[in-house]
Amino acid sequence: MTVPADRYDDYLIRSVYKYLYDNFASPESLDVNFQNSEFTSDGKTKWVEAQVLSLGAGKKGSLLYQIDIYTRVVGETGSGDIYGSECARLGRVLYAAMHVSTIPIYEFSTPASPTDTNKKLMIINNDGHFREPDESRRWPIENGLNRYTYTYRLMHVEDAAHGHYYD
Amino acid sequence: MAYAGFTNPGGVDTNAYLVGDWEEVLALKSNVIYRLGNCPEGVLEISREYYRHEDTQWPRKVDWVAPIRTGMKFTGRLEEINAQNVSMLLGQTLAVGAQNYLYVGAQSSTYYFTLRGNRVRPQDNLTIEFQIHKCLQTSLFSLGGGDEAQGAPLECEGLDDAAGNYGGSSTNPLGWIYVPTKS
Predict the structure, then answer these.
(1) Can you tell me the ipTM of this complex?
(2) In chain B, what residues touch A122 (CB-CB under 8 Å)?
(3) Most B CBs within 10 Å: which of A116, A120, A157, A159, as the mutation test of the B interface?
């Protein structure tokens, strides 16, 4: 049998990334590193790292998506985010951008022109609260970096149904 | 040998999956809206009871039914403890500026109102709504303790409004529920 495009793992991941980029990273001019071990943050004063912790959406589970916001405590010229207030502000902007019940699932067969599948991923945490992260954390300063982490849990709406089969 | 009609195991209208709670509950009286605030654990119940008649052949089987009772009820918990909500929960009145001293125990007239509720399907953002035309608030009033918001139970029971005093009619005496078309 074929799996429909709205349940492809890579399309689901890219749909979250696209939403994150369009609504948070791009307006804030942030670099977003997506699970790339080659990424270098040298010289950058603020950036976002995103990684997938669990790939259960579309398989009767949930997609756990961790977003880390980094700012440098002291920048190259000596100025920087000394008190972590810029990192906190970016955290607020991220929270506001992700404060939605659902995000659309796109299909990326033509990567430069994704098309809406008209299916949605729900943002719903482990306690059943829509729009809220599963976990949010401010880390102690380490390696001269401020860091906030927000972990979101996303479910395909058909994951919530109790039947054993998808559409 | 399989019936040819079995072609689609699982979901057929996945827009219709409903996740979440009743989001907004309103009480209305004389066209004035009274917002009740957060109402978690909301459940809408529409009940139908049938008398079952059994035939005289052994073993006996149900051979005809007659509808004998129908009801419409909404239960939940009101988390905002203020004079408007408590006055309504005690069955006294609906008033934004309800008096702060609410006296209990005396004989008083029965207070009816209309109840409306709304929720959204996450897949397509279409709403599901209900209205119970003529409600009586019948639950016990209780306030407990704990580290979560302590609400009081809400139980609104629909009465016959065939006379149309609260928006009902002879063909629509209890209320209605609005549900989107199958996609």
Answers:
(1) 0.81
(2) 19, 122
(3) A157
